[in-house]
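Service request form, structural biology core

Requester: graduate student, group of Dr. S.
Request type: structure prediction, single chain
Budget code: on file
Notes: please return the result as structure tokens.

Sequence provided:
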Amino acid sequence: MIGFNRGNSYLKSRANLRTALVAVFVLTAALADAGDAPIIVTESGVGGIDGRTPFAADAVGLALPGFDVRAEKHEGEGGFYSVFIAASAGVDTITLYGGETVVRADIAAPDAVTEAGARIGDLFSDVFSGDDERYCEPGMEVFSGKAVCLAPGSAQIALVFGGSWDGPDGTLPDAAKLARWPLEIIIWNAEF
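Core staff response, request fulfilled:
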């Protein structure tokens, strides 16, 4: 009887080991897939970033695990201002703006997508149809020569489309040309 229990424990230990190894394999695969997951931009923010996230390197780093975050100074019309740049695999993908809290994120990652399904690289005509175009404006400053459009059904997300054309600054191209412009940047803004 003692020998049987010992053997039974041995079998249970091997079964437990097999179960543990399968669990480790599944978890490892899930974590690897998570690293390849798209950056999803929602009405409330991107990743762990929202309008309550402190505009500080440590808070931004915690809200964007897996990204390398660095501070930079940029020059604008009002002088210099601070931004945080989040990079993934050495590529700058998210630029964050704010004061006390994060108020805006510009996302240019090739795998970025809105919760409504607009992806970086999508053509304007794939994202908008019919009267949706009335929500577009000509880009200004860094977005000059581009179309900045409120995402369909959104109050917090803008989409920046770009392409080439020779029209005057401060205007949008005709509908046929705009239809072929790809989505270059997704903007989440807490203050739209």
